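Entry 14. Ran structure prediction on the chain below.
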Amino acid sequence: MVPYPIRRRAAACLPLAGIATLLVAGNVAAQPAWPARPITVIVPLAAGSAADVSLRVLTERLSSSLKQPFVVENLPGAAGLPGTARAARAVPDGHTLALLNSSIMTTLPHVYAKIDYDPLKSFAPITTVVSIPTVLVVHPSLPVKTVKELVALAKARPEQLLYSSGGVGSPQHLSMAMLGSMAGIRMTHVAYKGAVPATTDLVGGHVQLMFNGLATPLSHIRSGKLRALAMAGARRSDLLPELPTVQEAGVAGYEYEQWAGLFAPAGTPPEIVARLNAESARILKLPEVREKLSQLGLEAQGGSADDLARAVRNELPRMAEIIRQVGIKPE
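Output, structure tokens:
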């Protein structure tokens, strides 16, 4: 029988590297597998908005690949500021994510004097989900069929035309403010708590025009409840190929683009971010997913986390200059 003191000495002589290996293995074994429970995705935008629609296409397939439900939590209002701040404060364990659009990450920081998140420090970028083609639409009662006719009418009726948006600093607000500045027209802004109610009131004739992500008003355009005049971006939409861009329609230099990206709270383990990026990128490359998003008026993206981080960094100063030029004052 081996005496106790000898057994104790043998354990003490175990190499330090071996002890470290055992400790690391023990810690890894103690970590619960991710994801260990349903994953919540905070969307600080209205249900049915372009970003929201794109997320639901993505999370349907992420749920299958990661074997956990994805719960979409819409928190619209105040241009998305409270919902975004809540996502930034979430526990960074990979079980709370956020879908944030370009306005929230690159425009609102210049529009509001105080926000409760830092676009460069509060989040870990995962991937760009979609780009969002933006369309200029009017109520059919407005007697215009082209951008030139709209500009002429607005000049004849300064501040009488009402345009809706999802809130101060929202994509709908900024894109129309840009048009007003570049075309030399003055219209009246009516802010709503999200793009969806803003579109609803446009369809109802309570306001007369707006810019919006194509996904939201597309069915109304097809039914004739809204009239599309032009696309805001650099190129035409495959869904409405006859529709010119605003620049083609006569407003030289006009271009406005939107995107929506998936983010995690800062401090989320990099291996979780990497897996979410890989799964999302794979799904967004699937032909059936790309086609479904295209039919909804959206363009699937994907790409690396670094691509999304670079987009935020590059667009922040550019949007600051645009906001200065159109004269939107911080609130």
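The domain at 39-131+258-326 is CATH 3.40.190.150 (D-Maltodextrin-Binding Protein; domain 2). Will compare against last week's run tomorrow.
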